[in-house]
Amino acid sequence: MRNPFYFVILLGMVSLFSDMTYESARSIMGPYLFYLGATSAVVGFAMGFGEFIGYGLRFFSGLMADKTKGYWPLMFIGYALNLFSIPALSFVNSWQEALVLIILERTGKALRTPPRDVLLSYATSQIGRGLGFGIHEAMDQVGALLGPLTISFVFYLKKEYKEAFLILLGPAIIAILFLLLARKFYPSPQSFEKSTSQLDIKGFDRAFWFYLLGMCFFGAGFVDFPLIGYHLEKSSLFSKEWIPLLYALSMGVDALSALFLGFLFDRIGLKAVILGILLSLGGVPFVFLGGIKLIFLGMILWGLGFGAQESVMRAFLAQLSPPKKRGTAYGLFNTLFGFSWFLGSFAFGILYAFSIPTLVGLSLTLQTLSLPFILKVKN
Questions:
Q1: What's the Cα-to-Cα distance from 178 to each of 13, 61, 79, rounded to whole Å?
Q2: Do residues 276 and 307 make contact, with C-beta atoms less than 8 angstroms apart?
């Protein structure tokens, strides 16, 4: 079972059931916080701060992974925090308590993501990085599709938020079981990639920093789904069970776009990243300014952008960083990306209460500003 393709599939199964857990929660987190009495500013801050923690700590996780090579312990601790914080949301009685669990969940994701991406980068060096990361993201998003569908069905049965969160304990346990299998069969995935240099490279070149800056603008301009869900709940355009269905639609598009863009990436490189950004630009204006039909279209485009973010944008980073510094590269990338996401989310949460068109304009401006920096990067 030494084929790196099977390792990608095993980690894909971990991500499938992980996403079934926490993306289910994300699909209803905005409405849930609204139900607990939170304002739009609180939602923007809470989710943005959660993402900042979730991305910001990845620098230290990535650095630790590079220094200790303890990829598996970091992943097990991270996945446990990431997954089991979700069912615990069924026991909270205030948005403040929910925020604590949101931060714990994001902390877990911060711990496990850089070592996981490093191990994936080793395996995908043999099968094609665009294809490998695309397959992983597609499986990831199958879980993100099934989870919200499950939540919608729970609501259809007239159950409440607490029952919806508690049922997510099942996929969380299955994800940990697949992680145990991956560890058993592939204890040292770094053997898949043979380093071409033994030098300890001290830094990253200009292309890395241009790319990182461009991605920070993109992250700052990408409106997170909890605020979208909050908007849909508050505007009463959709009933409670329809909001996770819309999220599921986006996750289905995410899965397909990850495969398509991953296939393109192995052939046209950075142009696939740019294509993903351009396709996503229409998502926010359609969702926040359109009627029901345009909202559906907006969620499709939003899903395309998310698919690009989680597949080809990660794949290209592996090309910009040497193997011995790859954990640090992913950690640094995610830290600055997460800080940008936090600033954007907080700003969008405040703007939502005053001017939705201004929110839309800021989102489009920031995402568009990413393109000049990315265009400075050569494949």
A1: 7, 22, 11
A2: yes
- Asked if 56 and 186 touch (Cβ cutoff 8 Å), the reply is no
Q: Is 363 within 8 Å of 223 (Cβ atoms)? A: yes
Over the stretch 103-148, which tens digit does the pLDDT of each residue have? Answer: 899 899 889 988 998 898 888 888 887 788 888 878 987 888 888 8
Instruction: Name the strand (E) or helix (H) holding 9.
Output: helix 4-35
**Distance (Å, rounded) from C-alpha 101 to C-alpha 312?**
30
Residue 321 region by backbone torsions, left for phi larger than 0, else alpha for psi between -120 and 50, else beta: beta
The 8-class DSSP code of residue 265 comes to H
Q: Inform me whether the pLDDT recorded for 63 exceeds 80.
A: yes
Residue 351 near residue 154 (C-beta atoms within 8 A): no
Domains of the chain: 4-185+206-375 (1.20.1250.20)
Residue type, 84: F
* 190 sits in which H/E element: none
Query: From the centroid of its chain, how far is CA 203?
Result: 26
One-letter amino acid at 160 equals: E
d(CA 67, CA 192): 19
Given a contact cutoff of 8 angstroms between Cβ atoms, the answer to whether 248 and 19 are in contact is: no
The token duo for 48 is: 């943005």
Distance CA 288, CA 280 (A): 14
